[in-house]
Amino acid sequence: MSKRTAVIGGGAAGMMAAIMASENGGSIDLYEKNEKLGKKLFITGKGRCNITNDCDTEELLKNVVTNPKFLYSAFYGFDSRMTQDFFRGLGLRMKVERGNRVFPVSDHSSDVIRVLERCLCEKEVKVFLNTPVKEICFGEDGSVEGIIAEGKKYLYDSVVVATGGCSYPSTGSTGDGYQFAESCGMAVTERIPSLVPLVVREEFVKELQGLSLKNVEAVVYDGKREIYRDFGEMLFTHFGVSGPLILSASSYVAKILGKRELKLVIDLKPALTGEQLDRRVLRDFESGRNKQFGNILTKLLPAKLIPVVVSRSGILPEKKVHDITKEERQSLTALLKNFDLTVTALRGFQEAVITKGGVSVKEINPSTMESKKHNGLYFAGEVLDLDALTGGFNLQIAWATGALCGRHIAERNGGFDELQYSD
């Protein structure tokens, strides 16, 4: 009699785990409480699905913020190249964009989900939609015995928990996996929104709402200690700041915010040193000596930002440029290089790309993704206390951990053969 496996959660990690676990012909059932598979996958990458990052394993690990060492086996066993080979084998055409981000050529996440669904069908994985799992059952020795769904108990030899985190709860990510873990005595760390916009105290950000800044540098300070520095694109919102640069910053500040405020310093002209920028400002001032200060910054700054910079400079907007002192000009230069904001909080899980925190990796065997306490119980994907920066790294965690636990189940059930796909 073939051994039976239940995978709870039809997202990236769950579908990958089910496909890999099916390799020896065992009976694999995939339970999804939504009406369709891949609901969160559908909205990733703004609906384009940033599948992975086309980099080597060491670079993958560098972009993992929480518990990167835990992922050695998963990433070396199923790295970015293997992820791309896997999807290429399923017939998905891909492209690499700026920052080594990998997307489907079609720019449609639905195509990624479609090839996974087709593969599940070919592997004869049974998919149960609109079927939430309520409980995982264990025998007297603590080994997995089965699950309870639809008011009935179903017997299984292995159960994979791939239920996601708390981010975007409208997609079904409501923390079920944490409850499964805690109910069987496993530790779960604090859950915090991550890759999420930041709230700032300054009211003037409302005036900047919708303004996108490219090629700026952001530094976050906790007192005098620098905790984040990077270069890229950001966006002002009615409550604070967002954009790729800021979302990455949130990964580093998440556990501090709530305890104290932090300082965000934006260098609006990072390509220029302070002296070079001062000379640039001086040239603009000399060419428009008779203009008012409020009208001289159009070549230097976006129109929306000018009134705020003028106000923060302390220089009267109607002051003639030829009357501005050297000290005032240098103060303006310093402001452009150090445009500071006070970060007070994170936005909530409704806007978070991922969850920081989750099932403690100390409870999990990193070589198999199996619980150290319960034989036959596996965890994969965002439900674990793992998170990374933007750029396809979090989906790579999902693919790699799903593949690792699926392969181990296949080996345990009778052997794992390298996947063979037809174009």
* Helical fraction: 25-40%
Radius of gyration: 25 Å
**Order of adjacent strands in the largest pleated sheet:** 13-16-15-14-17-18
The average pLDDT value, as a whole number, equals: 94
Q: What is the CATH architecture descriptor of the largest domain?
A: 3-Layer(bba) Sandwich
Strand segment tally: 21
Give me the number of helical elements.
Answer: 12
Report, as a whole number of angstroms, the end-to-end distance.
32 Å
CATH-level-4 superfamily name of the largest domain? FAD/NAD(P)-binding domain
Counting helices, strands and paired strands, the structural category is alpha+beta
Tally of structural domains: 2
Which sheet architecture does the biggest sheet show? Answer: 6 strands, antiparallel, barrel
Task: Summarize the model shown.
The chain has 423 residues and is of the alpha+beta class. It contains twelve helices and 21 strands. The protein folds into two domains: 250 residues, FAD/NAD(P)-binding domain (3-Layer(bba) Sandwich); 151 residues, Helicase, Ruva Protein, domain 3 (Orthogonal Bundle).
